[in-house]
Amino acid sequence: MNNQPNSRRTFLKTAATGSLAVLGMPTIIPAHAFGANDRIRVAVIGVNGRGTDHIAGFSKLTNVEVVTLCDVDKVILAKRADEFEKKYNRKVQMEQDLRKVYDDKNIDAVSIATPNHWHSLAAIWACQAGKDVYVEKPGSHNLYEGRKMVEAAKKYNRIVQHGVQLRSSTAIQEAIKHLRDGLIGKVYMARGLVYKWRPDIGNQGNSTAPDTLNWDLWQGPAEAREFSKNYVHYNWHWFWNYGNGDIGNQGIHETDLCMWGLDVGLPEEISSAGGKFLWNDCKETPETLTSVYKYPKEGKVIQFEVRPWMTNKEDGVEIGNIFYGDKGYMVINGYNDYKTFLGREREPGPSGKAGGDHYLNFIEAVRARDKSRLNGPVETAHLSSGIAHLGNIAYRLGRTLKFDPKKEVFISDAEANAMLSRKYRAPYTVPQQV
């Protein structure tokens, strides 16, 4: 990667350079001060699952062009490129290594839909390479790297959006305003619900990685392990080395909304209990998890439930949130539907159902070079992911934990603090100084 400014942006006067951790890749800050009619060129990194929605979401926007698809699996990559050509009647560039995407100075923004353990490092590298970033939830695999992602976005003046679509839902924005305006009174508790159908995954053991998969690059920052079909391409969610269980998967939408609705940051006290009660498979993360996050100084609490199989709904909700106040409660079903119930008789109050376009919100902020326009800014990515990590740590240690939300460390607890980060595998290292 060289130090030359973006040739497509001839008006660029200067570029700041530096070293990208370990790899020796320079930092480029092209400022992206281009007009509203200039085309924004996007690369999608990770195209097996959520990445397919990223491709469609950006491709439908005016003056936005998906120019590159990147995936460590050549089979998946070729399939998506073929689908892209048939749907949009043009070819798209293919890359297996995201570092080559960052080398391309004609790419303005990257959209990251890799497994969790890659999210923060991919975003940090993108910021250092002068790219704006849309990153899937959770924004981080652990608390430490989430904070480093925030620092990178600030240092390199990048627009970084967290992929929690409900932040752009006009109905949910309206619901939050009702909470702020006191519709249900003093809001003291938020409940997050994740009741998803998660079956037995068995145990396929270790085997040789396919020649078409770059297994080293797939593992990236994680501890090196032998290849297993248990991990690729979805069930990595249920292994601590790569995923964070369902509270760190589907649950990030709901942890984010719990914190947004209560208007809180990270908690001071965390307890979690759960386990595997259904399947004798090779999952490491709990099937069922109950976490409680306390805010004693603010008189607030978050309750979070993960259930994997047969279960009741709560006021019709399987995936969503419930907020409790001293004058009523609010039910949010999914990403764009809310209802309120007021008083002791639970009289129906205001309700709404409407979506939004989270990709468009990101692009509008990129065009304006204005982070304040983001509905899901990088700080929310760190917090909503971070609270899930804290709950998982409490579960894994089997005890209630005390936490300092300002210093972002557990209080007098070396064992818990050791779990706030991980041992990174060179050259895929999240740097201490971004």
Top CATH class of the largest domain: Alpha Beta
- In what order do the strands lie side by side in the largest sheet? 16-15-14-13-9-12-11-10-17-18
Find the CATH superfamily of the largest domain: Dihydrodipicolinate Reductase, domain 2
Largest β sheet strand count, sense and barrel closure:
10 strands, mixed
Count of the domains: 2
The oligomeric state of the chains shown is single chain
- From the 3D coordinates, which CATH architecture of the largest domain would you assign? 2-Layer Sandwich
H/E element order: EEEHEHEHEHEHEHEHHEEEEEEEHHEEH
**Between the first and last Cα atoms, what is the distance in angstroms?**
18 Å
Averaged pLDDT: 92
Structural class given helices, strands, pairing? alpha/beta
* Unreliable runs: 1-36
How many beta-strand elements?
18
Number of helices: 11
- DSSP strand (E) fraction? 15-25%
Q: Approximately how much helix is present in the residues?
A: 25-40%
CA-atom Rg in angstroms: 22 Å
The global form is globular
> The CATH topology of the largest domain, please?
Dihydrodipicolinate Reductase, domain 2
